[in-house]
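Why does residue order matter? Because the sequence determines the fold. Keep that principle in mind as you read this record.
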Amino acid sequence: MTVSINDVARAAGVSASTVSRALRGRQGVSEEVRAQIAAVAAQLGYTASRSASSLASGRTFTIGVVAPYIGRWFFGTVLDAAEQVFSAAGYDVLLYNLGTPEARKRFFTKLPVRKRVDAVLSLLIPDQEEAAALRSLGVPLAGTVGGARPGFTVVGIDDRAGAESAVRHLVNLGHRRIAMISGASEPLHWTTPVERRRAYLDVLADAGIPHDPALEADGGYTVEGGERAMTELLATSRPPTAVFAQSDEMAMGALRALRRHRLRVPDDVSIVGFDDHELAEVVGLTTVAQPVAGQGAEAARLLLRQLDEPDTGTPGHVQMPIRLVLRETTAPPNPRGPQ
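Structure:
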């Protein structure tokens, strides 16, 4: 015998609408009542009918997610956290991996998400035409990278402030030959490398340290790229005594290159990263911590709130906290080394 929502309501002593709100995670139901209803539903073996809910609400109960690099730690972590929130609320995820210019152009030309999703979470920064295409869908939109943009709720961090704290830490330790491993080869419209480089240059200027272009290397935001970039920096006529890597993965690659060159960290070279990767503590990396999973979860919650409470409005930009985490890879420069 099939158990209906009315059966659960009668057994729990509440209305069917209360059961619906409780099981879908909507507001207006106390945690005590929500737990009671969940227990009754589990006891009776009740499973919500996705097709019936879709017919009643006009929704697909699917969230579209567009991402540039799902294989990279940052994007994978954001996606995993967002999916957990969507799943708990009864939504499926339809993922589009736009890792190549061709895939990106094809997606924004055809917009295959139209009439297939209730909302879109973008893990990439669309240009003006792409953003207009997404707005034309007429569904709630959210993002987790970049700054505020019309029609989107963006959850992110202050990249510039984070990078400033990292470079200033190296300056305060006494370093003057400070290099940067960046992501200059990353795709257009991704503002993170640009903002973090501006911060690097600003801190050097404030400290009266001349900028040396030879102390910048492209690491492509990968471990392998960070290793190549560090090797390039060590080949310069005056190698750096400290390095700011724009991501922890590039910092880890730099650590590997230094180890292969028989150089000690931080005695010979100090390294500071950005992200607080799950392995950063394991390798003792000083870094700027950002709540990567928290950004994905918060963006997902804000999208669901727009779906459940469309008239309440949502913030255009939510800035998550960051902090400098001091570990074992930074120290004052070795007085016997280059200054």
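The chain has twelve helices and twelve strands.
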